[in-house]
From TrEMBL:
GO terms of molecular function: transmembrane transporter activity
TM segment ranges: 33-56, 98-116, 128-151, 157-182, 203-224, 230-246, 302-321, 333-353
Main location, first listed in the record: membrane
Compartment(s) of residence: Cell inner membrane; Cell membrane
Protein name as annotated: General L-amino acid transport system permease protein
Keywords: Cell membrane, Membrane, Transmembrane, Transmembrane helix, Transport
Lineage start: Bacteria, Pseudomonadati, Pseudomonadota, Alphaproteobacteria, Rhodobacterales
Length: 364
């Protein structure tokens, strides 16, 4: 039965059709109609300009010369066809780039497995992330199973971007839970001290933290405590992530009714049982939108490591067009890199929206 028939049987007025809604929302008055038409025309002009540059007037021939690309009025995707290895793998040795590609596939598979409802237990998620990260590291580093040893200074491209993002979240998320719980401590010394620490980290730009861990920390620690530059930068990024995520989780905890904790106490549940079974699950549910947003921000902020000397995907893109033959094709390279960021970030945001819908109907 159609919506119109159902409303006719029930005696309720039928909902307005698409044409009626468009007229009501965009063409209610002559002024509104004029603005709508001008806005639609402007949008169509932008869409046609981009499509004409990227598709209709573009050069797709992978063997085209730079001179042929310069003569074209559209985009030159030849630079991507000829330089995609530099963009995706950076300084990684050419003959070993299959390892970098397999490492990227490992990260994607790890994320996909984490998104499956059957994996939503603490032990399974921990196993997936620890095993996946270890496999990624072995593939990139080598030294086992006959794979040559490749130092972190030669890592680059998409694999390095994913490694920084994954390890930042792997270290930062558990640390954020600890910081959030300590800030809610009943001991004033602990709660105020942790609060001061979180506010101090949040008041600093991420760029200054990366510089501090990359350059300043080696002068403050003995040689045996100094890790590699990459790992110091990752720890600094994880600390920054944890400070922001701790406040997000604390906000989620404040949304949990205090009566639930008191009821759990009356049932004889200890602190860890109340926290792990009642407080944290509801806090994570309340904080889900902000948490997804924090993950998205952290993924995009991996591009900042370029300023401390790492060859992540943005630096690799700069090298791809940085030679004398392809300096004019920077727009195409940045468009390709933007597409890679869009695929990862859009997929993450859509998954977050799926989780919100799932939680809204009480299926979790």
């Amino acid at each position: 039965m159609s919506d119109v028939a159902r409303h006719a049987v029930s005696g309720q007025p039928a909902p307005p059709g698409i044409g009626e809604r468009l007229r009501k929302d965009y063409f209610r008055s002559p002024q509104q109609a004029l603005i709508s038409i001008l806005g639609l025309g402007f949008f169509a002009w932008i869409l046609w300009t981009v499509a004409n540059w990227a598709i209709f007037s573009a050069v797709f021939d992978g063997d085209a010369s730079p001179e042929e690309c310069r003569a074209a009025s559209g985009a030159c995707w030849t630079v991507i066809a000829q330089r995609w290895r530099i963009i995706l793998f950076g300084l990684y040795p050419f003959e070993e780039q299959w390892r970098s590609a397999l490492a990227c596939v490992t990260v994607v598979a790890m994320v996909v497995l984490s998104c499956l409802p059957s994996s939503w237990t603490g032990k399974r998620l921990a196993a997936i992330w620890l095993i996946g990260t270890a496999l990624f590291y072995v593939l990139m580093k080598g030294g086992l199973l006959g794979m040559p040893l490749i130092g972190e200074e030669r890592w680059g491209g998409l694999a390095l971007t994913l490694f920084i993002f994954v390890t930042t979240c792997l270290i930062g998320f558990p640390l954020s839970i600890v910081l959030a719980l300590l800030r809610r401590s009943e001991l004033p010394v602990i709660s105020k001290g942790i609060g001061l620490f979180i506010d101090a980290v949040r008041s600093l730009p991420l760029l200054s933290i990366l510089f501090a861990f990359a350059v300043v920390v080696p002068f403050m620690l003995p040689q045996w405590l100094q890790a590699g530059k990459l790992y110091r930068v990752i720890f600094g990024a994880a600390l920054f992530f944890a400070a922001y995520q701790a406040e997000i989780i604390r906000g989620g905890m404040q949304g949990v009714a205090t009566g639930q904790s008191e009821a759990a106490k009356s049932l004889g549940l200890g602190y860890w049982q109340r926290t792990s079974r009642i407080l944290l699950p509801q806090a994570m549910r309340n904080a889900l939108p902000a948490t997804i947003n924090q993950f998205v921000i952290s993924f995009k902020e991996t591009s900042l490591v370029i300023v401390v000397g790492f060859f992540e995907i943005l630096a690799s893109g700069n090298a791809a067009y940085g030679t004398g033959d392809w300096t004019f094709a920077y727009r195409e390279v940045y468009a390709f890199i933007a597409l890679i960021y869009f695929v990862f970030v859009f997929s993450l945001s859509r998954y977050g929206a799926y989780l919100e819908r799932r939680m809204a109907v009480g299926e979790l």
